[in-house]
Specification:
about 80 residues; mainly alpha
Length: about 80
């Protein structure tokens, strides 16, 4: 059996509220519903490299956040995983 991976996802206020409403209506825990929705989205995702780039380009502020992350690494403002 393959190991499962843990991913922490932060939703903006609008999506978090929508997830909460869906979970309440379906009487399912938010985390369980989120896992199911994410799994379905991943199953449906086209993994063609061009499509992945288009998807990433569509995330507001993603490039800027990645750039800031790189600057943090270069500036020594990170914590090694072993230190967590």
């Amino acid at each position: 059996m393959p190991e499962s991976g843990r991913v922490n996802v932060t939703l903006d206020e609008e999506h978090a509220a929508k997830l909460a409403r869906l979970a309440e209506r379906t009487q399912i825990q938010e985390g369980t519903l989120a896992r199911s929705l994410l799994s379905q989205a991943l199953d449906d995702a086209d993994l063609d490299a061009h499509n992945v780039v288009d998807l990433l380009d569509g995330i507001p502020g993603a490039f800027e956040r990645a750039r800031r992350g790189l600057e943090d690494v270069q500036g020594g403002r990170t914590v090694a995983l072993n230190d967590l």
